[in-house]
Structure formats: C-alpha cells, structure tokens
Design brief:
The chain is α/β, with parallel strands linked by helices and 136 residues long. It has a single domain (2-135), classed as Rossmann fold (3-Layer(aba) Sandwich), CATH 3.40.50. The chain is 47% helix and 13% strand. It contains 5 helices and 5 strands; from the N terminus they run H-E-H-E-E-E-E-H-H-H. The protein has helices at residues 2-7, 20-28, 82-97, 99-114, 119-135, and strands at 10-13, 32-36, 52-54, 62-64, 70-72. The strands form 2 sheets. A 3-stranded parallel β-sheet has the order 1-2-3, with helices on both faces. The protein is flat and about 50 Å long. 24% of the residues are buried.
Amino acid sequence: MEDLFSRADIYVLPSARLHVVSILQAMAHGLAVVVSDGWGIDEYVDDGRNGLVVQGRYGKCSWMDGNGMLRENYKPLLSTVSAVVDRLVEKLSEVITNTNRRRELGEAAQKDVDGKFSLENWNVGLAKAFDLALTC
C-alpha cells in the first residue's frame, strides 16, 4: 500500500461509510481524496478544502437510528445510481484536469493529518472520551 500511495496523485473511495484508516493514509501522503458522503466521512473530509465529496450515499446504506446505533444495509450498492456516477465523474474531472487544484487539496489534507488528525490529538480526544465514560 505504501508504494501505491507514494506513486499516486488521487485517492478515490466512493464508499457507503467511513474507512478512516485508508482515507487518513491517503491524506497523509498528500493525495487529493475523492470520497462519497457516506456516514462519518464528513468528520475527516471537508468538501472543497481538503478533498472532494461526492453526494448521494449518505443515509442509503448506513445511518444512525433513533437510539444512536449505527445501522447498515448494503443492498442499495448492488444497483447503479446515475446521479452518484455523474457527480463522481465531475469531481474526478476536476482533479484530473487541474494540477494546481489537486496539489491544493493534497496539501490541505496532509496539513490536517499532521495537525488536526495527529496521533497526539487523537489520544487527547480518546482520553476525554474515557474520562467521560468513567464519570457516568
């Protein structure tokens, strides 16, 4: 994977929900990421700033129910949604044809991984979550 990331310019993952490790790996390598709006992805990818987000997946295959539980049904992925395909083509065209745009997105993504999504920040957030859980 390391070799693939080091030779790539764009990372494409129009998934139904978050794949945090692979998305952050691509961002750490300074790749322009093109992802779907699947559940949880908006916590890491900010459309137009550190990546491009294809609309049309959110709530279709994974969602939070009224009790706060993640629910999943991947059957909708078995059929093509032309609107999602059209949006994917649009976003990919943007980063394929515009080197500067691709570089800007990749640099912002890499900066976010080095700062906002760093291991140090992750550990601070995790400690807060554990502390909160222990006080309940």
